[in-house]
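Query form — protein Amine oxidase

QUESTION: What is the three-dimensional structure of this chain?
INPUT:
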Amino acid sequence: MKTNSYLQFTFVFFLVAFLFAFSWYPLSKPHQVKKLASISDTQWIHKTRDHSLDTPHHPLDPLTIQEINRVRTILSSYGPFLPSLPSIHSLSLDEPDKEEVLGWKEGDPLPHRKAQVIALLNGQSHILSVDLDKGRVTAHEIHHGSGYPTLSRNDLEVAVQVALSYKELNESVIERGVSLSDLTCSTPSPGWFGPEEEGRRLLKVLFFSGQGTSNFRMRPIEGIIVTVDVDKKEVVQFSDTGRGIPVPKADNTDFRYKGQDTKPPKMKPINPISIEQPKGPSFSVEDGHIVKWANWEFHLKADQRAGMVVSRVKVSDPETGMPRNVMYKGFASELYVPYMDPDESWYFKSYTDAGDYGLGASAKSLVPFNDCPRNAYYMDGVFVSFDGKPFVQPNMICIFERYAGDISWRHSEVPALGYQIRESRPKVTLVTRMAASVGTYDYILDWEFQTDGLIRITASLSGMLAVKGTVHQNTDHISSQEEMAGPLVSENVVGVVHDHFITYHLDMDVDDTNNTFVKVNLVKEETLPGTSPRKSYLKVVRETAKTEKDAQIKLKLYEPSEFHVTNPSRRSRLGNPAGYKVVPGGNAASLLDPLDPPQLRGAFTNNQIWVTPYNRSEQWAGGLFVYQSRGDDTLAVWSERNRGIENKDIVVWYTMGFHHVPCQEDFPVMPIVSSSFDLKPVNFFESNPILGVAPMSENDLPTGISMKTNQYIIHFTFIFFVLAAFLLAYSWYPSSKPHQENKLASISDTQWIHKTKDHSLDTPHHPLDPLTIQEINRVGAILSSYEPFLPSLPPIHTLSLDEPDKEEVLGWKEGDPLPLRKAQVIALLNGQSHILSIDLDKGRVTAHEIHHGSGYPIVSVEDLLVALEVAYSYKELNDAVIKRGVSLSDLKCDTLSPGWFGPEEEGRRVVKVLCFSGQDNPNFYMRPIEGIVVSVDIDKKEVIKFSDTGRGIPVPKSNNTDFRYKGPEDTKPLRMKPIKPISIEQPEGPSFSVEDGHIVKWANWEFHLKADQRAGMVISRVKVSDPTNGMPRNVMYKGFASELFVPYMDPDEGWYFKSYMDAGEYGLGASAMSLVPLNDCPRNAYYMDGIFVSSNGKPFVQPNMICIFERYAGDVSWRHSEVPAFGYQVREARPKVTLVTRMAASVGNYDYIFDWEFQTDGLIQVKVSLSGMLMVKGTVHQNTDHISSQEKMTGPLVSENVIGVVHDHFITYHLDMDVDDTNNTFLKVNLVKEETLPGTSPRKSYLKVMRETAKTEKDAQIKLKLYEPSEFHVTNPSRRSRLGNPAGYKIVPGGNAASLLDPLDPPQLRAAFTNNQIWVTPYNRSEQWAGGLLVYQSKGVDTLAVWSERNRGIENKDLVLWYTMGFHHVPCQEDFPVMPTVSSSFDLKPKP
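ANSWER: The structure tokens for Amine oxidase are given below.
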């Protein structure tokens, strides 16, 4: 029989070999050029297009080539410009009046096409309007104010030519040892520093050595500046102040790929990865500029100054399918970059890039596959050169659908109605992108549209530092008295400290032009004595901005507000005004003296938000004429007019900022840093607009052949059918071995799709591996015979690995014997908490402590079931429910922790039971039986208190509360264009490995990953490879979510106790549900199980609890483009691929998604996303019109008879940093405003870096302050770079919220760890949980805040960093019945 099997195999083998050979034999038709057989074979890859015959189709379409040529012809014969055409600095569409555009419909004749021209003649700026239909100039104005138009490329070339011909320059350069043939220039704008600079257009010319590198910017010839009058073409000033400073060497400056050929990468290579859409795109681009996707429609065009303009933005109403106006126009209005060096050769470096150079004019063609993903569509820009002739900037904008493996919304529910609910939806978005290369920097500007109505605007920075030459090669050579303008980033190179501010013009038209700006302030309210166990809560106070000054907003962490643009005349069925809100992200504020000349010109950055009435002449935040302006026509000036803005056509201006203290990792090219803000619907929709979206299915996604060529696909298909026919027949032939189950031959056939695994024989391989099933069973056996627990095992609340001492783990190497395996057990016996350590090798209890302080261990599922059983059997509850009109068969109850509110609650474990109606659908959370609370003593199994205070409040109806997807036949029709399948594909498989079940290795990273019953997911022994030698270096010993605090802002009887500590009370791991493949995690994910313990001490498996996947979202890792300098154009970009680990916990109504994301540049991003259900309160109100202004509301009306109660979320992370070793130091790197001495510099102020070492814990209790900015470094003083900088990591906060509750309010006493955003403590293995080991009903006597008050030394110690991220949540209709995901994050970033 064995011989027969070999014969069968041989037959099949030769058949396959024959068919494979046949596939290479030429067919009757000649071979075609090979193409990628994927969606990239269609319109996605942009072909070079002839724009000469383009015609406009929309009132806002940019001028065509024909129209530009017509304007040039008209101007060539225009009398005032004879005999020759002046220099053209701007030639763009003179847009029709807004009312005319809003009234225009497709099919209508276009309004008159006009061009706006800005020209320079005899040193004067001319502004003209040219009517293309009439063929003549219809308006001509000469500008007499300060400032000049955007520079032309010709201006830059003139300045360089004049400078290079200057004799003194050439002599100085030669004296510096630089060959004139290697001399390279840049032309920064000079700013404005007094009347003596007015009346002439100046350019500064700086010089570099290009010898040995394309990256000449890293080789400055320090101190040489030639100031050129570009109109007179003459040098007006020559400065040569840096003769003693050497020109930095070219070593390691080349960033081009071919410049790296001699350096083998010191990391595991990343396999190809792409975003694939097997059925093609879901969006269309009509008439060249109208983009339609899902529920969005907008006009998109390139602009020579703004770069990219998004206009006429509309979103479809999910109820009617009708498009509704959101925004008339949005774009980056100005980009302000002040450098912080007052020296002679640097003081003027404060740029307004949009107004000085033009973001569109500075744009370069995007690099396919690197700047934009494979599935991108490209759009060209048609611009005008100084001679009035048109030119095309190809591939300037890209449009693509993004799928990054993220979640749009989700909720999981434990079995409540006889089945388990696990619903989630993948997040797919549409991105428009452009990139401008302005001098050293590259700015990547994204507009991202989500199906839930949110628009995210992101600015990402990369490129080169503007560096300063120095005599120093090592920090040891720098005296403490010497003032440095920035850190040493390479030998003889200083990275000068600077800021970036991008101000956006957002002409919001929410449902119409007349809108109102409302500040929704969260204000702390103190309760009256005796009215509530709570001392404080937050209430919402709405403040309508009447005039512009009311809307000049400085963001304040401790005075939080939401910023709404509402339409008072468009109200929802509940009476809430339709609106959008601006949601700030991480930000930075300008700290310069308001009278400093750069800040006078950049005064639009004095606030983060401004609101002005619409004025078509007020589009550019720095003014129409920015170059050398003195700041007399800026947004700040307009706003001081204090015009009315209530119920008007208004424009919102938002400024995002970056402080940049450079570091060695920024040399020679900078990894991307990003910031963003959101425009988010608030009561714009009647409910969550994306409920009806179907989950993703494996059947929709591409197979593993998507990377084959077209010809190979034909041959493969032929082979497939022949083989299929043969094997079908062969399968009926008897064989000696039984048939095996057929499998799909695709990437999903490997480890990617997680099979259910038998863990019964698992063994540990690493000292931090979790307990195995065998070990858990062994613990149970030991405890069953442990005398203090006889005759029966008490309830087990925690059973986990009792980890070895840290020193022992750090000293362990693969192949060494494992340290002794121990288990920590927390059990409850006779109302007391017992903490035991069990030696598994010795088979006995080695430590036993009885806890006598406050608090109890995590409640078990059995505890909650006991509480429910007691409540359900309570007669008064049943009677009250029936009186409310709810059938007992529909009664659903939930169990909540009671918090701690005084000594009278101590000495017994209590659970609060709340009740709901589950009639008709499982989303009972939206149907509260308001005011009924049953307090249960779960140990005595008795009701100790029954409260029924809401008898007059109806139970909300079940209409529109069901969030499940039951199939297309059961749902109302979606009022949006469907999104076609999309996935992340890796045709060559994963780039990471999971060894021994827990060791993850990817690219330059290695770490230990495990599930934990309390923390959910724990990352340990994190190491990153050194790129110079490939050796792994320690970054972090352990990181995890230590506590999650959720206080609700309602002091009423039925709500005051609702302030939860989800990790310590319920356990994030214990609350985790299996992740939903393709919806919670992408197709290329690998899954990991959790092994936990029930209260009877028996192990159970939580399958698919963690997923690991490589993320590619079409983002950029780093990029730089350079205009031709050495006979070629430099365009280098790299796509960003990262590794993500994820788990999701469903704690009651909320779902928390925890991500750790590892980047190849050494950065770790830690992110938390929130979804799930609101915790709602019943009310008698069905419409806001019924609510009196005197009535106290604890949140907005989100549905009929339903209030979404205001609340907070705070997640505190434990980060045991071990940067290159255990002994680290915490540094506050403060940016401090310094005033210059009179007469020393034209600058009045600048920022300098002040380093402050935290000696003790109190030195490291940090409250974040926007106007007192700092970086927060964990450094290793004993490990220094070749430049002498200490190795370090810094924590980079993201968007955040701070706790505002009274510190003595009982919930805040327990959660005092949220009093600061950052704490640092010395390592102590007993201090892992920010709320204490035993949190349930604790009174806050054993928290991080208590430990930190000991004020122990932390300098050069093994230290732990604690970071708290926060969310304020003022609910809205879009959060009903399930919430779209909201996220926040922070970064751990390498920083010497």
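ADDITIONAL NOTE: DSSP finds 16 helices and 62 strands in the chain.
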